[in-house]
Specification:
Elements: H1 14-19, E1 34-40, E2 46-52, H2 54-57, E3 62-67, E4 97-98, E5 104-110, H3 113-120, E6 124-129, H4 136-141, E7 157-160, H5 163-171, E8 175-183, E9 186-187, E10 195-201, E11 204-209, H6 214-225, E12 232-236, H7 252-262, E13 266-269, H8 272-277, E14 281-282, E15 284-293, E16 299-311, H9 317-324, E17 336-344, H10 358-376, H11 380-387, H12 396-399, H13 404-415, H14 417-430, E18 434-447, E19 456-463, E20 469-472, H15 482-494, E21 501-503, E22 506-507, H16 526-549, E23 556-559, E24 562-565, E25 568-572, H17 573-584, E26 589-595, E27 600-613, E28 619-629, H18 636-655, E29 685-690, H19 713-725, H20 736-744
Length: 745
């Protein structure tokens, strides 16, 4: 190898972001641009009877006020991934019937943002109100119907062991242990809020968008506004975080339609509050899980049922349930039955968020198994090791090379689990003010979407006359460093430096097609495509060298940006490019397609120690260890950063973050003061390690980390708290009040 794979390489735009040079969508100013401000519903369920904007139009600088009458009444699904993606369509660009507080009912367009905001305050809306329903359990059986012709419980997916077999095994077990776990919606809280610019010139629409799925945005604009795809262009500037929240269209169609209406570029930038109520969330959930357990600590079978709150529109509800349906089966090897359903409610739309259902599923399963261990008085690590997959017991084609047990073993060693058990026992007996506990959790997540649907990417690489390269990829780097990883892969193959490869900005008019950046496919799928691309370029350089130097190809090799004959350098990459242009009159560029035909799973095992204040119930995380099986590490900087960020997100999920609603459907935690993100100064020291057995299917044996990083973390913290206080709670985040009630009890 060229010593690039596995090194610590800063991500491409780190310096630009740190110095303020990076250009985000909100930074862009186009000629004659105006500004849009959404009119959002203030009720949870009902119909708009009238919108009075007469006074708003009197304000100097107000250009227009648009309502549902100004946009096509064509239903779509904002979670669409590709043309003819067969998913339920329940949304419209602007709605007359509103289904949550924050639903779009109109748009003010003005010469400045300040004028648009002033006009917004003068608009009066009259509604016909209906009774809303907010909870997924209630909505699943309610007579209230949110969408005509569609059950609130949209559909059901069942997988795993046979239902009758599982029921029979549970009924015959020594013990039956049941849990009901409630999980709230949470927000992505990306640093960059949702931003978009629509521009309509010469019968062509260009959308600059904070998106992680440019080609899907292009398809939806084409479908909704009945435009040819070659008249729709989507450009992604620097993306200030996404975590799945920018996978689905939010304001892109509004900006496109508004620009076509007023024949001027229209910029829409959501405020933090608007981003929290009118964009996307992680699905809330209700989990019912029942297991049969024998006295010897064998879990004979588990029946796992989950309802997820998909919000006011179907969106990716069925996708999340489908993705979730096989994740538990990739981690546990005993009879397990999974049944899941998405349910529409009068809450904000849920969608993709880091883990895509895995955090909810593994949270429920880990808490349940930890409770079983507590009930039986056995070590939870030992109980899990008895029931999780082993790489020698699975179908390698389906699972890859699962190193979950190796992760647990290494994590237990790094954390010093056995010694900590003794230490906290002594601490808790002596200390009157604080109590400590340790917890453990596992998680798994896939890499790519095969075999759910097509999983392909098209990539282009050009060799320049000075030996540098240009790389065209519609890979949306969201701060996770996926483009940097792809460049590292190509650099390794081409024996060049990472800096010698320049990646272009995502532009659907100039970049080859890509499915989108989700499902942890940036390294596993796109990275493998980059490997094939670089290999094709290497082959082209050698073939061109044969013509230039009149030698057999088998005698040539490349090293250090040069072509070699045995141990003699014949010429640089730049020399070969110039020869191709001047003598052969051709460009040295390669275009490749790559489609994934491998379903691979990444695994993680986390360990944590917490300390709880007996007086106020406050939880402090003292120590944290995470070990992951992500195959071969490409960029050690990147993977460590991804893992630490995922842990931070999971700790917040366990201890502080939630979205709750009043009786009218108003979000109570609608700003960053009320929405309690876990603070950086509250983070513990984190030790991370990786099992690098490698796997086939990905570049150099790499899998994925980005989503799997957050999957095991919340349950690890919750189990540590339960270990400290001696009892599990059935809701997250764990409140200080619940902790105090249990301690005092």
């Amino acid at each position: 190898m060229n010593n690039i794979i596995g090194s610590r390489t800063p991500i491409d735009d780190a310096l630009a972001k740190a110095t303020g040079e990076a250009t985000y969508t909100a930074d862009i100013k186009l000629a004659n641009m105006c500004y849009g401000k959404l009119i959002l519903s203030t009720i949870a369920f009902g119909k708009v009877k009238s919108i009075n904007y007469t006074e708003a139009l009197k304000i100097e600088g107000v250009i227009d006020v648009l309502t549902y009458k100004d946009f096509p009444n064509i239903k779509y699904n904002s979670a669409l991934r590709f043309k003819d993606h067969g998913i339920l369509k329940t949304e419209t660009v602007i709605s007359e019937t509103v289904r949550f507080v924050g639903d779009r009912i109109g748009l003010v367009i003005a010469e400045s943002l300040a004028i648009a905001e002033k006009a917004l305050k003068l608009i009066e809306v009259e509604y016909e109100e209906y009774k809303p329903v907010f909870d997924e359990e209630e909505a699943a059986t309610s007579s209230i119907q949110l969408h005509e012709g569609l059950n609130n419980k949209v559909g059901t997916i069942s997988t795993g062991a046979d239902a009758e077999t599982v029921a029979d095994l549970i009924s015959k077990a020594d013990f039956i242990i049941e849990d009901k776990i409630k999980i709230p919606m949470v927000n992505h809280v990306s640093l960059e809020t949702y931003s978009v610019i629509g521009e309509y010139r010469s019968k062509k629409i260009t959308v600059y968008a904070s998106t992680q799925n440019s080609f899907a945005v292009r398809v939806l604009i084409s479908d909704v506004f009945n435009m040819p795809l070659n008249k729709v262009r989507v450009i992604q500037p620097t993306l200030g975080g996404a975590f799945g929240g920018k996978l689905e269209v939010v304001t892109e169609l509004v900006a496109a339609g508004a620009a076509m209406k007023v024949k001027r570029p229209v910029k829409i930038v959501l405020s933090r509050k608007e981003s929290m109520i009118a964009s996307r969330t992680r699905n809330g959930a209700t989990i019912d899980v029942k297991s049969g357990v024998n006295k010897d600590g064998t879990i004979v079978a588990t029946d796992f049922k989950i309802l997820i709150n998909t919000g006011a529109y179907v969106g990716s509800g069925m996708n999340v349930i489908g993705a979730m349906s096989h994740k538990l089966l990739k981690a546990y090897k005993y009879p397990l039955r999974y049944t899941g359903s998405p349910v529409v409610t009068n809450t904000p739309i849920a969608g993709a968020m880091r883990g895509y259902g895995s955090p909810q599923a593994f949270l429920g399963m880990n808490l349940h198994i930890d409770k079983i261990a507590m009930t039986l008085g056995v070590d939870p690590v030992e109980l899990n090791m008895k029931h999780i997959v082993d790489k020698n017991e699975v179908d390698i084609l389906a699972f890859g090379n699962p190193e979950l047990k190796a992760c647990v073993t290494r994590g237990k060693e790094l954390f010093d689990w056995e010694s900590k058990k003794k230490e906290i026992s002594k601490f808790n007996k002596k200390n009157q003010d604080f109590i400590r506990g340790i917890g453990f959790g596992i998680g798994a997540h896939g890499a790519g979407v095969y075999p759910a649907h097509q999983d392909c990417v098209n990539l282009l690489l050009r060799l320049n006359e000075d030996g540098s390269f240009n790389y065209w990829s519609a890979s949306h780097d969201m701060g996770n460093g996926s483009l940097t990883a792809q460049k590292m892969i190509m650099s390794e193959v081409l024996t060049t430096d990472v800096e010698d490869i320049e990646a272009t900005q995502v532009n659907t008019e100039t970049c080859p097609w890509n499915l989108g950046d989700y499902a942890s496919r940036g390294v596993f799928v796109e990275g493998q495509g980059a490997y094939k691309l670089a290999d094709a370029m290497k082959n082209l350089i050698l073939e061109t060298s044969v013509l230039k130097f009149k030698v057999h190809k088998e005698a040539l090799s490349i090293k250090d940006k040069k072509v070699w004959l045995d141990d003699k350098p014949l010429g640089s990459f730049g020399d070969i490019a110039v020869y191709a242009q001047t003598t052969l009159q051709k460009e040295l560029s390669v275009l490749v397609d790559h489609h994934s035909i491998a379903g691979r799973t990444s695994y993680g095992a986390h360990f944590a120690e917490v300390e709880i204040n007996r007086e106020n119930g406050a939880v402090k995380v003292l120590d944290y260890v995470a070990v992951h099986d992500s195959g071969t590490i490409i960029n050690r900087y990147g993977i460590e950063g991804q893992l630490e960020g995922g842990i931070h997100m999971g700790i917040g999920y366990a201890l502080s973050e939630k979205m709750t609603f009043d009786e009218k459907g108003n979000l109570l935690e609608n700003n960053l003061k009320k929405y309690q993100i876990f603070k950086s100064n509250e983070m513990p020291e984190i030790k991370v390690d990786f099992i690098e057995t490698g796997d086939n299917g990905g570049p150099f044996g790499a899998k994925s980390i980005s989503e799997c990083a957050t999957v095991p973390s919340a349950q690890t913290i919750i189990n540590a708290v339960a270990n400290a206080i001696g009892e599990h709670t059935n809701t997250i985040p764990i409140s200080k009040e619940e902790i105090l009630n249990i301690i005092n009890k």
